[in-house]
Amino acid sequence: MRVLVTGGAGFLGSHLVRRLQGAGLEAVAPRRSQCDLTNQTEAARLFATVRPDLVFHLAAEVGGIGANRANPGRYWYANLAMGMNVLEASRLAGVGKLVMVGTICSYPSDTPVPFRETDLWNGFPENTNAPYGVAKRALITGAQAYRSQYGLNTVCLLPVNLYGPGDNFHPKASHVIPALIRRMSDAVAAGAHEVVLWGDGTPTREFLFVEDCAKALWLASIRYDSGEPLNIGSGREISIAELAAIIARLVGFRGRTVWDNSQPNGQRRRRLDVSGARAAIGFESKVDLEEGLGRTVAWYMATMPARERTASLTGPAVMGSAGV
After folding, report:
1. pLDDT score recorded for residue 295
2. What is the pTM of this model?
3. What is the residue-averaged pLDDT of the chain?
4. Hey, what domains does the chain have and what are their CATH numbers?
5. What distances in angstroms separate CA 277 from CA 110, 166, 229, one per listed residue?
6. Model confidence pLDDT, tens digit, residues 294-312
7. Residue 198 β-bridge partners
8. In contact, 84 and 152? CB cutoff 8 Å
9. What average pLDDT score do residues 208-217 get?
10. pLDDT of 173 higher than 90
């Protein structure tokens, strides 16, 4: 079986590639410099060269609240273009199965908790990440259309916020957990007595350890064949303030947390109904949040060069507390 993983060199993709290799499969994981999936010609050339039987579409342009606010047009265009080109290239190449990774940012801003897959179309996504969420939601419709007209076996998964070793810790583009880890470890290194975080700390989020998500993708590729999207998560939520307190303890920050209420909170609550994934593919998360955070902090401290952990407390690195 020939397997293609778009975004395979990225955060989730690298973990998925290792899982595929552990199952005895060889996955092709081109970098963006090798193929720009927003270009239809380049996407078609990639598929014609690899001739994959199974495709995981993970490639995306995404970030936290600040990055979404700075790049609404780019995030809408790039994610929509990549998904459309992968769908069409999969059709033309006769791919046996396509697993597309969406986002819970596609859910309406006022979705009742827990989010159920049937709630997906009941309103407009939360404004801070709506262009990204709308693009990903449109691709679900595209996947269903290709299934109906061309018989392309495409399944769509909706993971919650991911975290773990190998995450993006860039001060302007990271999601909430890596942003908090970097922010607070910078404060420890600088001997600072406070950190400033966006919002008021009350929004809740659900998190899934990246290795658990990679397992869910693999299970879906062999056990799931429905056109209906499927939630992938842990089913547990935590407030941003509680999350910040745990990370502060793990990195050894004993200072004060200051909440900047002039900055957006993002969606008030996020927690998925994950009963569908349990029933359909037998997936349940295994790594609890505190264990996963400890492993992520340890990886960051051991891997990131000292120059990447220098203090940046007066610049634009104040993180978006709600992430995406």
Report:
1. 97
2. 0.90
3. 91
4. 3-162+207-232 (3.40.50.720), 168-205+236-269+288-309 (3.90.25.10)
5. 23, 25, 10
6. 999 999 999 876 545 443 4
7. 260
8. no
9. 98
10. no
pLDDT of residue 308: 55
The C-alpha atoms of residue 301 and residue 279 are separated, in whole angstroms, by: 38
Q: Residue type for 38, please?
A: T
Mean pLDDT of 243-267: 92
By annotation, the residues acting in catalysis are 132
Q: Which single residue is written with the structure tokens 């303890």?
A: 249
Rounded Cα distance, 213 and 52, in Å: 22
